[in-house]
Write a structure and sequence with these properties.
Largest sheet: 5 strands, antiparallel
Distance between the termini: 111 Å
Number of domains: 2
CATH topology of the largest domain: Beta-Lactamase
Helix content: 55-70%
Strand content: 15-25%
Oligomer: single chain
CATH superfamily of the largest domain: PAS domain
Number of strands: 5
């Protein structure tokens, strides 16, 4: 029986698999294999981290681009709105100037006073006043201005404007100056202050 057992152990020990079980790898080979496995794991982590950073950078770049485009669009829209508002106010100012001119030619200051009272009912219009060519306030929606000089409250250069002009005021306030022209001379100046949209 011992001879049969010896033969089977010889056959099993002769296969490559049995040699792997019986062969002891030197320590340096085991450490090298372990270092290779750790290196592959570290490389995979580093490559994954780099890909994640690239993804984050691309995402941040897209967000920055979208913000820049939105900001440029808003800026363009605000400029367009401001330009259109100024055009509408100039058109309004021209019509108002002609109405006031007509009333002044007839020496009808009561009609102008009614215009001013109606205008300040609009929440955006704060003050409307009429000054003679010398700068004295003849009529105003706020009665405390009547009889004073325009230059006491506003820049005197505004009285030198011709046509319909708009000027910045304090904060969101805007000032519209309407030069009221007669046939040959200036009849007066209307100053209107309003809040910009």
């Amino acid at each position: 029986m011992t001879a049969a057992t010896d033969e089977s152990s010889v056959r099993v020990s002769g296969t490559p698999l049995s040699k792997l079980h019986t062969t002891k790898l030197p320590l340096w080979v085991s450490l090298t294999l372990l270092a290779l496995l750790i290196g592959m794991f570290a490389w995979k982590q580093i490559a994954g981290g780099a890909a994640e950073r690239r993804f984050d950078e691309e995402r941040q770049s897209l967000i920055y681009k979208a913000e820049a485009e939105r900001s440029a669009y808003q800026s363009t829209a605000q400029e367009t709105l401001a330009r259109q508002s100024a055009d509408i106010y100039r058109l309004f100012g021209t019509a108002l100037a002609w109405n006031i001119r007509s009333a002044m030619m007839r020496n009808n200051l009561d009609e102008i006073d009614q215009y001013f009272s109606a205008l300040v009912k609009n929440e955006r219009i704060q003050l409307v006043l009429l000054a003679n060519p010398e700068g004295k306030v003849l009529l105003a929606s706020d009665r405390k201005f009547v009889g004073s000089q325009v230059s006491d409250h506003f820049p005197a250069a505004m009285l030198q404007q011709s046509g319909v002009t708009t000027h910045p005021g304090e904060g969101k306030e805007r000032r519209m100056v309407l030069s009221i022209q007669g046939l040959n001379t200036q009849l007066g100046t209307v100053l209107l202050t309003y809040m910009a949209p």
